[in-house]
Fold this sequence. Notes:
The structure is a single chain. The chain is an all-alpha fold. The protein has one domain (27-188). 55% of the residues lie in helices and 2% in strands. The protein contains eleven helices and two strands; from the N terminus they run H-H-H-H-H-H-H-H-H-H-H-E-E. It has helices at 2-21, 31-35, 42-52, 58-72, 77-87, 92-102, 107-117, 122-132, 137-147, 152-162, 167-175, and strands at residues 180-181, 187-188. The chain has a two-stranded antiparallel sheet. A hairpin with a 5-residue loop joins strand 1 (180-181) and strand 2. Helix 5 packs antiparallel against helix 6, helix 7 packs parallel to helix 9 (137-147) and helix 8 packs antiparallel against helix 9 (137-147). The longest helix is centred in the N-terminal third of the chain and has 20 residues, at 2-21. The N and C termini lie far apart (145 Å). Residues 3-23, 179-219 and 222-228 have low confidence and may be disordered.
Amino acid sequence: MRTVFSITLSLAFLAACNSIGKDPLKANPFNEVLAAVPTAELPAKAVDLVAQAKSRDRQATTIDVVKGAVTINPGAAPYIVGAIARAVPVMAPVAVGTAAAEQPKQAGAIAKAAASAASSKAGRIVVAGCRAVPADYRSIVVAVFEAVPGSGNDIIKAVAADLPELKASVEQILAGYGRNFASSGVFTPSVRSPSTSLPNFPLTVTPTNFTTVYSGEVPTGGRNYSTP
């Protein structure tokens, strides 16, 4: 009897230790706040929550806010991320990576919205999006470059530093947009002089004879314009 009791006590102790060792799933602290907001106001509320967070908590807050807002309204992911990027540009890559991981099919649209709102973070936005959805790196690069056409250097440098395995592929993608890469690998846009000549349009209407108001027979000797 005493042996059975000892075994039972030992098992209970082990179970308690295991439960202590496992961290319970942490609930998103912003779920209730975001759920109480009308759907159309989610982007604005997300901005408020991120902007009000202390600097040391801003990254964690951005992750939780984006996750909560995108879960409530997945279709609004680009708008939510774009709003945060515009208000707090430094958090644009974090918002992109979080939202893209939650909605991988919208990765390109999410990255484009963020880049349009925070153009100075174009390179970091590409890296964040590619890390979250590696299989969709092409559409992410294209979306950001279309949003910020002058971001070639930024994109290449960021990718080379953090995702070197994608550098050659990204260069090829951008080169497809009529851009040239110097031998050093620095991105330089090609320049074309605008044409000043007018385009030639084909004549689509058959010319007709112009008839004056003085039509009719001309008398012998011509008309006498001196007489009334």
